Amino acid sequence: MLPVVALVGRPNVGKSTLFNVLTGTRDALVADQPGLTRDRQYGYGKVGPIPYIVVDTGGLVEHAGGLEAQMAEQTLRAVQEADRVVLVLDAREGVTNADEYVTRALRRSGKPVVLAVNKSEGRDGALAGAEFHSLALGEPISIAAAHDQNVRALMDVVLEGLEEPQSAEPADEGIRVAVIGRPNVGKSTLVNRLLGEERVIASAEPGTTRDSIFIAFERDGQQYTLIDTAGVRRRARVEEGVERFSVIKTLQAIDEANVVIALLDAQETVAEQDASLLGIAAERGRALVIGVNKWDKLPPEQREHMREQLQVRLPFVDFAPVHFISARHGTGVGELMQSAQAAYDASMREMGTSELTRTLEAALETHQPPLVRGRRIKLRYAHQGGRNPPVIVIHGNQTESVPEAYRRYLVNVFRQTYGLKGTPVRIEFRSDDNPFAGKRNPLTPRQRRKRQRLRKRGR
């Protein structure tokens, strides 16, 4: 599983700013106001030598009461979940009593801790961190999260000794299929239906599944590993501490999976949480199938409303096949798994360079790239750069100027040509190096001969 890094510290030291830098997002609220982060925020870390999950936490304060006490409890739970802890400190204010309180709490946890002395811009790094040696938690590292200064060096130290998780080949354990969705949409019921037995607890009470459960089974001669995950609710609705722990397990399950089945509840609207989970799966490049559960006995007007909701709220995953099912009665479940198999096959498809280049040439002939400063973007050839998801690398000139609309056009062309249904398709553009860049204009052979004749004549 992906390692977990927790960002901890007293309020207003820049934890959320650092979280945004590490994830390359603006997911965490950032303002010059203490206590803005009240709940844990999760994301996939992108800065550092290996991938990981990073957790932003609320500030830890001594003698906390009311809401602050709840924030402190959640922060300590994040520490328990973590493989590494980053204690974020403020270089401008130096060591405070609150910092010493957080340090004592972290020392009791027994987790490896790295000191990040934030807001060090304009200061000598050694001097900025000198005062924090008194906390006796190792060598402080000076950073400026707001300016992305020295953050990579920080993460090199934080992740030292951890190895990137190596996923087993699908042949060893079959195709890994993660079932995700909000609580009480029927994930465990679907898993039991696929297995043909009551293997996992299925209950009408939300949050029954606390952890991700890996189950091997065979269907139509194909080996699978099902991953039943805990439901993810909007944070304001999550009240029980144990359920909060489940979010990391769901994110890890998505990262482990080859195919993600996202289950929606036909009796409810497509919520923001549904879109968020689907977005995470697509962003991680996972093959994706959507199952709309509890479809049986649904009135015709509600069915039409749900179809409209899917089109309006989930246009970014229009590549994913949609199945209307009843996990309890088994209706449509067979077709759902057929799509999961097809999506996996599409994500692993091999495409030859000559075939991809011919497809690119046909796309260019149908619809040429736009002009950039009076010059036409030239795309010359394509080759495959990866699988699961398929990556197509296109070489040419001025490729950095290819508009997003034209990128989507090419994605659709390759998707239709190669039947890449159910998987994201990524296109990478690369500009060919100009061999004469930075050199004087080269002479033609005729010009060289003329220059040689002139030299012999002494002119």
Q: Can you walk me through this structure?
A:
It is a single chain. With 459 residues, the protein is α/β, with parallel strands linked by helices. Helix content is 35%, strand content 20%. The chain is built from 14 helices and 17 strands. It has helices at residues 15-23, 67-81, 97-109, 125-130, 151-158, 170-173, 187-195, 241-256, 272-283, 300-313, 333-347, 353-366, 404-418, 445-456, and strands at residues 4-8, 41-45, 52-56, 84-90, 113-118, 141-142, 175-180, 213-219, 222-228, 259-265, 287-293, 322-324, 371-372, 375-376, 378-386, 391-397, 426-431. Strands 2-3-1-4-5-6 form a 6-stranded mixed beta sheet, with helices on both faces. Helix 2 (67-81) runs parallel beside helix 8. The longest helix is centred in the middle third of the chain and has 16 residues, at 241-256. The chain is flat, with a radius of gyration of 27 Å. The model is unreliable at 29-38, 200-211, 231-245 and 434-438 (pLDDT under 50).
Helical content class: 25-40%
Average of per-residue pLDDT values: 82
Radius of gyration based on Cα positions: 27 Å
Number of helices: 14
User: Which structural class do you get from the secondary structure elements?
Assistant: alpha/beta
Distance between the termini: 75 Å
Strand order, biggest sheet? 2-3-1-4-5-6
Principal-axes geometry comes out as: flat
Outline the biggest β-sheet: 6 strands, mixed
Strand content: 15-25%
Number of strands: 17
Please mark out the parts with pLDDT under 50 across 5 or more consecutive residues, or reply none.
Answer: 29-38, 200-211, 231-245, 434-438
